[in-house]
Design goal:
This protein is of the alpha+beta class and about 200 residues long. The protein is built from 3 helices and 12 strands, in the order αββαβββββαβββββ. The protein has a 6-stranded mixed β-sheet. Strands 1-2 form a two-stranded antiparallel ribbon. It has a two-stranded parallel sheet with strand order 4-6. β7, α3 and β8 form a beta-alpha-beta unit.
């Protein structure tokens, strides 16, 4: 398959998509995900992105929660194997080993928006994570300086969604009741939106 500079998209049937994804040779410096039967490949994230993920993880108590990065999630009923920026689950939950984390073990998923991931984070993954029954989905957008917390998933397939949405601007606190913590956002950095680099709609 041909690899584009930012990503590679290939829509396939369920079994072909999973097999192709499992056998995909991802080049160094790239990240690949399977989303609704589509293989998406993207370049590594910005430093601001990584610092936000780290700042969130640092506020989630490790004694109670595992905060996993580069962890694939098994949403096979949705022909998907996403790799969220952060996967949060209770300590000692989940399998002892393996590449895929079952969604029923997960409490919260985090995605930090990049210049090429806006539609995927706000639309594709919102539906996907709701369909998988993930209790909480947190989107942090350094381009708008806003956090969006989604809870109470409902529905099936591509019609699934979260019933409750709560927003907070950078600098405001955001209660993460599912984790029993209040997320402080004052240290989150923003990214400029240049005319030639606007996040995709």
């Amino acid at each position: 398959m041909t690899i584009a500079p930012e990503r590679m998209d290939a829509r396939m049937t369920d079994s072909h998509a999973i097999n192709a994804f499992e056998e995909l040779d991802v080049p160094e410096g790239f990240k690949a995900e399977l989303l609704w039967g589509e293989i998406v490949m993207m370049a590594g994230p910005d430093l601001v992105h990584n610092r936000i993920v780290q700042a969130v993880a640092d506020q989630i108590p490790r004694k109670r929660w595992d905060r996993l990065q580069t962890q694939d999630v098994a949403l096979l009923a949705q022909t998907s194997e996403p790799q969220p920026d952060l996967v949060v689950l209770p300590r000692d939950a989940g399998p002892a080993s393996g590449r895929l984390m079952p969604p029923e073990e997960i409490t919260l998923l985090l995605e930090v928006v990049s210049k090429t991931s806006k539609h995927r984070d706000y639309v594709t993954k919102r539906t996907l994570y709701a369909a998988g029954g993930v209790p909480g989905y947190l989107i942090i957008d350094p381009f708008t300086g806003e956090c969006v917390l989604l809870t109470e998933p409902a529905g099936k397939g591509e019609e699934a969604d979260y019933r409750v949405e709560r927003r907070a601007r950078f600098g405001e606190s955001l209660p993460l009741d599912l984790l029993g913590v209040k997320l402080e956002t004052e240290e989150f950095q923003t990214l400029p939106v240049k005319q030639s680099e606007k996040p995709e709609q």
